[in-house]
Write a structure and sequence with these properties.
The protein is α+β, with helices and mostly antiparallel strands and 478 residues long. It folds into two domains: 22-99 and 155-324 and 369-472, Outer membrane efflux proteins (OEP), CATH 1.20.1600.10; 101-152 and 325-358, Outer membrane efflux proteins (OEP) (Single Sheet). Helix content is 63%, strand content 10%. The protein contains eleven helices and four strands; from the N terminus they run H-H-H-H-E-H-E-H-H-H-H-E-E-H-H. It has helices at residues 2-22, 55-58, 62-74, 76-98, 119-126, 157-223, 229-264, 294-297, 299-320, 365-432, 438-472, and strands spanning 102-112, 139-152, 325-336, 349-358. A four-stranded antiparallel β-sheet has the order 1-2-3-4, with no helix packed on it.
């Protein structure tokens, strides 16, 4: 008879599981479309990639290297991310512990006095107990032992949740690498902007000294009756204009220094630098390699890829909630109402073992909604991954074109500066020999000043384009 009942219960359980499985949706995942072409430019297949070079080697300026080194230790955003990485690592241990048995050691002591006109009181009152052997009043209870609970991970829900935690941890690490890349690039950009401002300041000071010398010549010529006071006033105004511009440039230098100090994680102070050879220094050559290398080198792509993998596993975790869950609970220890007999064997020995199976039957809307959310998140992760690829390729191609055009522009501006510098001497000589008026001298000097400033600006843009290409290729975090 017992075997028949067991068979009937087993058959009902199998039937129940079959009905349940028929109502469980199938996993449908959106596939990734990789939009990256094979090469950046036609007929270029060189796989040499500068992003593989450490930032310590890539940047040749020792002062810049020292700033970046300090920033990676003291920058507040980096330190915050490091703590989030620790939290994500701990989350793996939390998930891992969920599919292992929970074993607890516990002890308890309690005291109870029941009313006479209750079920327990009436039972104690009517038991045929010999004299001096009745229930103690109040009744104590002492126990000590092990408690075991274990959810059987039949559908791999808990193990997949642990894998999700691993993916999220690795994504957090890549997120930190992305911040490091951005930080290195931002410090380098600000550093070269600071060098450019130093050169702009020197250019202004040099131009002011030249104009003051010419102003003295004009004053001598006025005394000789060769020019009027209008020429003197125009040159004085030009000198004042350039002197006022000095303070604007100095303020930009202070702000740029403070920005670098903030990124380094320290209070405002003087930035050590060498600006003398800035205009004659050439940016490092950056080799782009091929687009497929972006998948390995760029932290944002690697982060998006890990988040996509985690979203796929989350679908399996959400789907497993449709299935029954199985659990085992057990207890082993000692229990007695008399503390003296608590550890007495076998009379005080206590043990129990129970198994349960629970499956959702009605009102499964919450489970279904979580499952649909997991599917939507996976689809969104696919689009985010594809968007990250498109953005990476666009950034590289933009900077490749930018570097090429800036090189051509710089060569032309350099020729322009050389011509205007020579024209200043010619204009001065013609003015002193009364073959040119003061306006020609003034405009020639103004054009030369603007041309030199534009040349400095273009040189700065060349360095920034080099840094942005290095960053776009995935360099800066190694």
């Amino acid at each position: 008879m017992k075997n028949k009942y067991i068979l009937k219960i087993g058959a009902l359980l199998v039937l129940f599981l079959i009905i349940q499985s028929c109502a469980i949706p199938k996993i449908v995942q959106k596939e990734v479309n990789n939009p990256l072409p094979e090469v950046y430019k036609a007929k270029e297949t060189d796989t040499l990639n500068t992003s593989a070079i450490s930032w310590r080697t890539f940047f040749e300026d020792e002062n810049l290297v020292s700033l970046i080194d300090s920033a990676l230790v003291n920058n507040k955003e980096i330190n915050i991310l490091l703590q989030k990485i620790v939290m994500a690592q701990n989350e793996i241990q939390v998930r891992k512990g969920e599919y292992l048995p929970f074993v607890k050691l516990g002890t308890s002591a309690e005291l109870e006095k029941v009313g006479r006109f209750t079920r327990n009181g009436a039972v104690e009152e009517n038991l045929n107990i010999e004299e001096e052997k009745e229930f103690p009043e109040p009744l104590a209870n002492f126990n000590v032992g092990l408690h075991v609970s274990w959810e059987l991970d039949v559908w791999k829900k808990l193990r997949n949740a642990k894998k999700v935690a691993v993916m999220e941890y690795l994504a957090t690490v890549e997120g930190k690498n992305l911040v490091v890349t951005n930080l290195v690039a931002e410090i380098a950009n600000s550093y070269y902007e600071l060098l450019a401002l130093d050169n702009e300041l020197k250019n202004l000071e040099k131009n002011i000294n030249i104009q003051k010398d010419i102003l003295e010549i004009i004053e001598d010529l006025k005394e000789a009756g060769r020019v009027n006071s209008l020429a003197i006033k125009r040159f004085e105004a030009e000198v004042k204009k350039n002197q006022s511009e000095l303070y604007i440039v100095r303020q930009k230098i202070v702000e740029t220094e403070n920005k670098i100090n903030f990124l380094v994680g320290r209070m405002p102070q003087k930035i050590t630098r060498t600006s003398t050879n800035f205009i004659d220094t050439n940016p490092s050559i950056v080799n782009a390699g091929i687009p497929s290398q972006l998948l390995e080198n760029r932290p944002d792509i690697r982060k998006a890829e890990l988040e996509l993998a985690a979203s796929k596993l989350n679908i399996k975790v959400a789907r497993a909630n449709f299935y029954p869950s199985f659990g085992i609970n057990g207890r082993l220890g000692y229990e007695s109402f008399d503390a003296k007999n608590l550890l007495k064997m076998p009379s005080s020995l206590l043990y129990s073992l129970a198994a349960d199976a629970v499956a959702p039957l009605l009102n499964r809307n919450a489970i279904k909604a979580n499952y649909e959310n997991a599917n939507a998140q996976q689809t969104a992760a696919v689009y985010e991954y594809e968007q990250t690829l498109l953005n990476a390729y666009q950034e590289v191609t933009n900077q490749l074109s930018n570097i090429e055009n800036l090189n051509k522009s710089y060569d032309l501006k350099k020729q322009q500066v050389a011509s205007l510098t020579e024209s200043i001497s010619i204009a001065n000589q013609l003015f002193q020999s009364a073959r040119a008026d003061y306006m020609e001298v003034l405009l020639t000097q103004r054009d030369a000043l603007e041309a030199r400033n534009e040349l400095i600006h273009t040189k700065k843009e060349q360095f920034i384009a080099m840094i942005l290409l290095y960053k776009a290729l995935g360099g800066g975090w190694k």
